[in-house]
Specification:
Strand 18, helix 15 and strand 19 form a beta-alpha-beta unit. By secondary structure, the chain is of the alpha/beta class. The two termini are 30 Å apart. It is built from 17 helices and 20 strands. Helix 5 crosses helix 17, helix 11 crosses helix 17 and helix 15 packs across helix 17. It has a 16-stranded mixed sheet that branches. A two-stranded antiparallel ribbon has the order 6-7. Strands 14-15 form a two-stranded antiparallel sheet. The protein folds into two domains: 317 residues, Zn peptidases (Aminopeptidase), CATH 3.40.630.10; 195 residues, 3-Layer(bba) Sandwich (Glucose Oxidase, domain 1), CATH 3.50.30. The protein binds zinc ion.
């Protein structure tokens, strides 16, 4: 799973239940429909049940142990560990009798399974922010360097020169009422804002702090969204006084290579440029403000100032690969349509001698997908629609593999009836978390639900809010594989895993995800901490749901 998911999670936790379900259909749906307590098994169609039963915990554990072993070096993008992973998965598909989807190519037997994913590799990143002050015909200029007074976002070599405006704290809220963009023309400009929140207790609520000052790398996501929605090219955030030491450390610790999508927008939007108070003072000087006095100042044009954001670095073309196989549907009338099931195979690789094993993230989903593919392929009765199996590359670097796939799909997206995602399926919910969920949802009969449902048998599955017709199939899959269920409806377009790419193309999606845990994105995400029985529950549920959708 990509790290921005954590930010979204903290935003979601701070929001109300209805705010998590933005679609009108979802908020009208009775809450009880979205909770299925553990109950007696309701039989699935025989081939579906047999395939689900064929998924074994020991086989899942063996794949996870292999993929999360030191030999695969944490499966980092651009490394031989990920190359070896791709070969392992292509071979697994071939052994299962699942042919490649791509056109046959010359070369080794596994070559046709590989879907090339071009990307930009950036090394030796640097850059600067130049503040030019014009007074009459004369100008003066100051330069602030990346890693000293400035932190530039990840990008290739790019440059942007533009006027700037000052927009207070960059907030737009109705309660408390404040719109820092009210009187500003920001189109195609960069917006200078202060980090943090305005003075006053009414701004120090958990909800507002979670929105404007969350932990993690995407702290200014909400502020940036306001700026971009208003038509600005990006945001310059003036950070607190301790920022220069932070900038130095972050620039030093930054990964030596950054991977960016091959596709780039015609216009560069630098996103969030973070600057020190010294750089802030230079930006605000002609307006008669300082970083200190700006907190109580009205938003305004910063006349006479132009800013140049210059990102430097060495860029070259890199190529990674998705691994894709296909099982044709058994019904001639429906085989032209497909369900795509995907899991990302990459993880964070290694830093020096430290390997990030990524057992849960996402050897668990990868192993599940291998076993699902094997079980469906081994069945004598096939699903009516076609099933496409996809192992994605570059998820941890920003969903590069799945984003590339939806731009260059191997199966037409308008004939893809659903996308099923498996990412981090190995850690269960804790009893108190299930209790909190049913309490927050105001579930009638919550106590009965909790009594009937051990946390270990409770699974939450995300579902595209615009595909309510898939919910009954998901419920049936849960009742047929013996688990309790919560259906978490959402739009997924800002999602933290590969379903995001499909959501943005309006393909109905399902998201299988277990729980965060204290080793998330740490070297401690190891195979011995995973419960293969838990992975098996998820894999069985995902298989049954995908098959029922394919037969629908
Ligand atoms: Zn991850």
């Amino acid at each position: 799973m990509h790290a921005t998911r954590l930010v979204l999670l903290s935003l979601a936790l701070a929001a109300t239940v209805s705010a998590q379900s933005p679609s009108p259909q979802a908020s009208r749906a009775p809450v009880t429909d979205d909770f299925v307590a553990l109950g007696p098994l309701k039989p699935l169609p025989a081939p579906v049940a047999a395939a689900a039963d064929a998924i074994r915990a020991d086989a899942l554990a063996a794949h996870i142990a292999m993929l999360a072993s030191p030999a695969f070096e944490g499966r980092g993008l651009g490394t031989r560990g990920l190359d070896a992973t791709a070969e392992y998965l292509a071979t697994s598909l071939a052994l299962a009798g699942i042919p490649p989807l791509a056109a046959p190519t010359a070369g080794p037997a596994t070559a046709a399974y590989f879907h090339p994913v071009p990307m930009r590799e950036i090394r030796a990143r640097g850059g600067e922010l130049v503040v030019d002050v014009w007074q009459g015909d004369t100008s003066s200029s100051r330069t602030f360097r990346h890693g000293v007074d400035v932190l530039l976002p990840e990008s290739g070599p790019e440059e942007l020169t533009t006027p700037v405006v000052f927009a207070g704290f960059g907030v737009r809220e109705t309660t408390p009422a404040r719109d820092d963009y009210r009187a500003l023309e920001v189109k195609d400009k960069l917006v200078v804002v202060l980090g943090g929140l305005p003075a006053g207790a009414e701004w120090q609520t958990p909800d507002l702090r979670a929105r404007y000052d969350p932990p993690g790398d995407d702290r200014h996501a909400a502020r940036l969204a306001h700026a971009l929605a208003a038509g600005a090219r990006g945001l310059i955030v003036i950070e607190p006084p301790d920022f220069p030491s932070q900038a130095a450390r972050q620039a030093q610790e930054a990964s030596p290579v950054v991977f960016l999508p091959y596709h780039r927008d015609a216009v560069w939007r630098p996103g969030v440029v973070r600057v020190s108070a010294a750089a802030g003072d230079a930006l605000l000087a002609t307006a008669g403000l300082t970083t200190g006095t700006a907190a109580s100042a009205e938003p305004r044009d910063l006349r006479g100032i132009t800013v140049t954001v210059r990102a430097t670095g060495e860029e070259r073309l890199g190529v990674s690969r998705n691994v894709v196989g296909v099982l044709r549907g058994s019904d001639p009338a429906l085989a032209g349509e497909a369900v795509v099931i995907g899991a990302h195979m990459d993880h964070l690789g290694r830093r020096g001698d430290t390997i990030f094993f990524g057992a849960d993230d996402n050897a668990s989903g990868t192993a599940s997908l291998i076993e699902i593919a094997k079980a469906v392929a081994a069945s004598r009765a096939r699903p009516k629609r076609t099933i496409v199996f996809a192992f994605w590359t570059g998820e941890e670097e920003g969903h590069l593999g799945s984003d590339h796939y939806v731009r260059h799909p191997l199966w037409p997206l308008d004939r893809t009836v659903a996308y099923v995602n498996l990412d981090m399926v190995g850690h269960p919910w804790k009893p108190e978390e299930v209790r909190q969920l049913v309490t927050d949802a105001k579930l009638p009969d919550a106590e009965r639900f909790l009594k009937a449902t051990p946390a270990a048998d409770f699974l939450e599955v995300g579902l595209a809010a615009w595909a309510p017709e898939l919910a009954p199939l998901l419920v049936r899959a849960a009742q047929g594989t013996g688990v309790a269920l919560h259906v978490d409806r959402g739009d997924g377009k800002g999602g933290g895993s590969d379903y995001r790419a499909f959501a943005r193309r309006d393909v109905p999606w399902l998201r299988f995800f277990g729980n965060f845990f204290d080793g998330y994105h740490e070297p401690a995400d190891t195979a011995d901490r995973l419960d293969a029985g838990q992975v098996r529950k998820m894999a069985r549920l995902a298989l049954a749901a995908a098959w029922l959708i394919a037969d629908r």
